[in-house]
Amino acid sequence: MTTLAEKATDHRAGRWWALVVLAMAQLMVVLDGTVVNIALPTAQADLGFSDSGRQWVITGYALAFGSLLLLGGRLSDLIGRKKMFLIGLIGFAAASALGGAANGIEMLIIARVLQGMFGAALAPAALSLLSITFSDPAERGKAFGIYGAISGAGGAVGLLLGGVLTEYASWRWCLYVNLVFAVAGVVGALTKLHDEPAANRDRMDWPGVVTSITGLVALVYGLGNAETDGWSDPKTYGFIVAGLIILAVFVAVERRAKHPLLPLRVVLNRNRGGSYLSIAIAGAGLFGVFLFLTYYLTGILGFSPIQSGLAFLPMLGGVMISATTLGSLLTPRVGPRPLATIGSLVAAGGLAYMTRLDLDSSYVTGVLPALIVIGFGMGLIFAPTQNAATSGVQHHDAGVASAMLNTAQQIGGSIGTALLSSFAASAATNYLTGRTPDAQTAALAQIHSYHTVFWWSVAFFVLCAIVSAVTFRSGPLEVDPDAAPVIAH
Fold first, then answer.
1. Would you tell me the crossing angle of helices 206-229 and 234-256 to the nearest 10 degrees?
2. Does residue 221 share a domain with residue 197?
3. Which one, of 379, 371, 386, 316, lies nearest residue 342 by Cα?
4. How would DSSP label each residue in 397-430?
5. CA separation for the pair 471, 262 (Å, rounded)
């Protein structure tokens, strides 16, 4: 006969197995943002599409994912988080298979849009399942430390995995690899994840759905155009302005809705609001590390795709160490305020060190120390902010609270893409003005543009530190009052 102590041990073990399943799904979604980028040049040569088509392979995913997250989060509250998790996993896998088998640009773009749609169902369901599975503050700190490490390191994993698969297999395997994650995730979800019954059967807020999706699509599309067409193009500023206006209408709709898509109580809480702002700003700053440091490694140091991916591993190590040790141990005791503030300043220091890079810098002395420091700082940001994003929220709002974090990260990344690409282009153009055009001058112009981007990324992380210090409350996070833990067997 099984004793109560043995049952409790099984329940605890079940929760940690649930974390493995959820973290695996999160890794699949996060790394997909960079693993496909590495494969794009090869896919472009194979399928013979234009640069504008290449842009839509990225933009199509971002538009679908960013605009549908709030709807995905609310649906997980309405019909069940485990159901939405499985729908998202299976749909994401099917879309990945479609993309891997693409015989032209149209099929590839459709697959990427479908990936974004199902990713928008999967990501908030995973985070909300994690939130309601771990209610004990100490266990919750550890769980979110691991989950935060996965989120922070997923982009670097994608760069490495994309390089390996493209070089040794095919660009198509950058999409097919998601089938491996999905099959393992579905098996794990069916055996290890348990959800509570969906208590929230309120009617869907369709005016909120329409205005949120329309506003976010316009905003993300406008920011995407800024990178390719510049800020003065009507397709850039017109869509950005339209998106902001529609999102203002969305807020007005939510204030009056009986059952709002996004209850404003979710975002007006200081800790949750602080987590959304912090993760958006950090996401914008992190873009400078991934994209422009990759350009430096490949263009200046002559690294191959695999070497570039391996070059980011120390950063991944820094994220894992700080998120799973200091982030997980200290968050239940001191809360997110000091950790996210210090982590942002540490990351800013690492980026400031990268402004010393030159044409004759080496990886070991110029890049490696900066990556370790940035990774350590990012771990201190991701673990406590993801914890804070769902702390103190009622269970029937857990899905939409999780969706807001993913939305903030997506919008922050889009803003970072647009702003930093624009700053880099302007810096390179200004440097070349009045100078003799030759290979050396062109290389120096590139270095100058990278320095500009790194300094702006420093500014983003300093701003993240200020926001974290001002918005987060002091002390440990509030535990959900109705958080009777959901036990996974």
1. 160
2. no
3. 379
4. GHHHHHHHHHHHHHHHHHHHHHHHHHHHHHHHHH
5. 20
Name the packing angle between helices 81-100 and 105-133 (round to 10°).
160
Tens of pLDDT, residue by residue over 116-142, are: 999 999 999 998 898 888 878 888 888
Say whether both 396 and 378 belong to one domain: yes
Q: How many domains does the chain have?
A: 2
Is the residue at 269 inside a domain?
yes
Q: Which of 251, 255, 463, 246 is nearest to 347 (CA)?
A: 463
Nearest of 299, 304, 308, 305 to residue 444 by alpha carbon:
299
CA atoms within 13 A on the CB side of 76: 35
Give 239 or 294, the one with higher predicted confidence: 239
For residues 148 and 343, is the Cβ–Cβ distance under 8 A? no
- In this predicted model, what pLDDT tens digit does every residue of 256-279 receive, in sequence order? 998 899 999 999 999 999 999 999
CA distance 91 to 145: 28
- How far, in Å, are 82, 93, 398 from residue 402 at the CA level? 14, 22, 6
Structure tokens at 440: 């050396």
DSSP-H helix ranges across 169-287: 173-192, 206-229, 234-256, 264-268, 270-287
Helix (H) / strand (E) element for 368: namely helix 368-390
Shared domain check, 219 and 115: no
* Number of Cβ within a 10 Å radius of residue 242: 17
Regarding predicted confidence, which is higher, 289 or 69?
69
Give the integer Cα–Cα distance in Å for 392 and 254.
Answer: 21
Q: What is the CATH number of the domain that holds 133?
A: 1.20.1250.20
Model pLDDT for residues 306-321, shown as the tens digit of each residue? 888 889 889 989 998 9
Predicted confidence band of residue 31 (pLDDT cuts 50, 70, 90): confident
| Separation CA 317–CA 311 (nearest Å) | 11
Which residues span the domain enclosing 395?
A: 8-204+261-471
> If DSSP codes are grouped into helix, strand and coil, which group holds residue 21?
helix
Claim: this prediction has a pTM higher than 0.90: no
Inter-axis angle of helices 270-287 and 368-390, nearest 10: 150
The label of the residue with tokens 């922050």 reads: 412
The verdict on 353 and 385 lying in the same domain is: yes
* 480, part of any domain: no
* pLDDT for the residue 484: 43
Q: For the purposes of burial, counting CB atoms within 10 Å of the CB of 397, is it exposed (0-12), middle (13-18) or buried (19 or more)?
A: buried
> Token pair 């059952």 is at which residue?
259
> 213 or 8, which is more confident?
213
